[in-house]
Write a structure and sequence with these properties.
Layout: E1 5-16, E2 19-30, E3 34-38, H1 45-52, E4 59-64, E5 67-68, H2 74-80, E6 81-84, H3 96-101, H4 116-128, H5 144-157, E7 162-166, H6 174-189, E8 193-197, H7 201-207, E9 210-215, E10 218-223, H8 225-228, H9 231-238, E11 241-246, E12 253-258, E13 267-271, H10 278-287, E14 290-297, H11 301-308, E15 312-316, H12 324-336, E16 339-342, H13 352-358, E17 364-367, H14 381-390, E18 394-396
Parallel strand pairs: 3-8, 3-9, 6-7, 7-8, 13-14, 13-16, 14-15, 16-17, 17-18
Antiparallel strand pairs: 1-2, 1-4, 4-5, 9-10, 11-12
The protein binds adenosine-5'-diphosphate (ADP) and magnesium ion.
């Protein structure tokens, strides 16, 4: 086994009342990894974490730093692996500081109480999790979110090489959620190994360097976030149609869960630009229309949208004129489409040709959310053509598009 391998699982199975909850799981984990365990409710994430720290006695082999955990007693395991789980039930009114100090238990002699050093360690992690001011309070009297932070402090106080977190931020405000994941990432950067069951896929993609997707007690996918979070995997794990893209504002991975139903509608060509057409295209996409769009310029958010949603699109290099060839391919798409829509777009000298192309529409719909005069940057040139188009079109607004399509 390599130096860096801290956890090696082979053929792990776990059953409750004859029902197999985990089925033949293989997993190798290296020092310093921050792994997100994802998957729908009931996939087996919590059960797997409890097998790793020995609470659940599983079949198969689980080795921690080369040692079979079934051969280690609870205290020895607890010096290597900590688990923060959701269903930690504390009914006795311990003081918060005593709950955190319980994290030191595996390190202390059986009869020896806490040392000054233990207090220092506990206080250090309480400061970090902003729970120091709760020290004297009773654990039974703090809020759900506070309790979760106290349990995180206890887990850190255990100072293990492997840290297992089961949905550690389930009842936390967003600020604390970020804080816990930030800190978990920092820990993994410092050589700790973190495995966290994470409900929120965006959070998982953002913080973890590896994701393990589970469903029905097996591992469906294992790899880097971008490899695991594919439309195909999300379909088989969660049964949803997802569109995965990099959010151009945050630069982070984002998901659009498609509400598109199976029903196929007609074909629609959308003329837009400057971000004016994305909402229209999304609406049509959800309705099941086959959409095309153009001409759009590289760098335009409408083009970005079309590409992410797999919409056929005629495009043009930034700041370039529409060439005859590009113009003709746009016209061809318009002629093939049952409907052509002109969105509430700005008119510039470069896109007048898109309005000309619209003259070829079988049925033309114009979306006018704002008066065309305030969108005109051609000193009226585009408006003449636009008004001509309007006389042949159904004119509506974004909000009323559903009356037509
Ligand atoms: P996850 O954490 O991914 O939501 P769990 O590991 O909690 O999934 O559960 C996996 C499966 O095991 C589920 O079908 C769940 O109903 C079952 N299960 C978990 N714990 C118990 C238990 N104590 N008794 C019976 N079934 C259980
Ligand atoms: Mg769970």
């Amino acid at each position: 086994m390599g130096e860096r391998m801290v956890l090696e699982i082979k053929g792990l199975s776990f059953s409750i009342d004859e029902r197999k909850i985990l089925k033949n799981i293989d997993l190798k984990v290296e020092k310093g990894e921050f792994i997100g365990l994802i998957g729908p409710n009931g996939a087996g994430k919590s059960t797997l974490l409890k097998c790793i720290n020995g609470i659940n006695k599983a079949e198969g082999s689980i080795k921690v730093k080369g040692c079979e955990i079934s051969k280690l007693d609870g205290r020895k395991i607890a010096r290597e692996i900590s688990l923060m789980h959701q269903d930690t039930l504390i009914t006795f009114p311990f003081q918060v500081i005593d709950v955190v100090l319980m994290g030191r238990y595996p390190h202390n002699g059986r009869l020896k109480g806490e040392s000054l050093e233990d207090y220092e360690i506990a206080r250090r992690y309480m400061k970090l999790t902003e729970t120091l001011e709760l020290s004297e309070r009773k654990i039974t009297n703090v809020s759900g979110g506070e309790r979760q932070r106290v349990l995180f402090a206890k887990t850190l106080t255990q100072e293990t090489g492997i840290i297992l977190l089961d949905e550690p931020t389930a009842s936390l405000d967003i600020a604390y959620q970020e804080q816990i994941f930030d800190y978990a990432r920092e820990l993994s950067g410092n050589g700790k190994t973190v495995i966290a069951a994470v409900h929120d896929l965006k959070i998982a993609a953002r913080y973890c360097n590896r994701l393990i997707l589970m469903k029905d007690g097996i591992i469906l996918a294992d790899g880097k976030p971008a490899e695991v979070l594919t439309a195909e995997n999300l379909k088989s794990a969660y049964g949803v149609n997802a569109i995965i893209y990099r959010n151009s504002i945050t630069g982070q991975m984002d998901f659009y869960i498609s509400k598109r139903n199976g029903e196929k509608k007609g074909t629609v060509h959308v003329i837009g630009g400057g971000g004016s057409a994305s909402g229209v295209m999304r609406y049509l996409f959800e309705r099941g229309y086959t959409i095309s769009s153009g001409v759009l310029w590289s760098g335009d958010s409408d083009l970005r949208f079309a590409e992410v949603f797999g919409i056929k699109c005629i495009k043009c290099d930034p700041f370039c004129e529409i060439s005859e060839e590009i113009y003709q391919s746009n016209v061809a798409l318009i002629k093939e489409s049952e409907f052509t829509i002109i969105s509430n777009m700005p008119f510039g000298n470069s896109n007048i040709k898109n309005l000309e192309a619209a003259l070829n529409a079988k049925r033309l719909v114009i979306i006018e959310d704002e008066p065309p005069e305030i969108r005109d940057y051609t000193e009226g040139k585009a408006l003449t053509l636009y008004n001509e188009l309007k006389s042949k079109a159904i004119v509506t607004t974004s909000a009323r598009l559903h009356e037509i399509l």
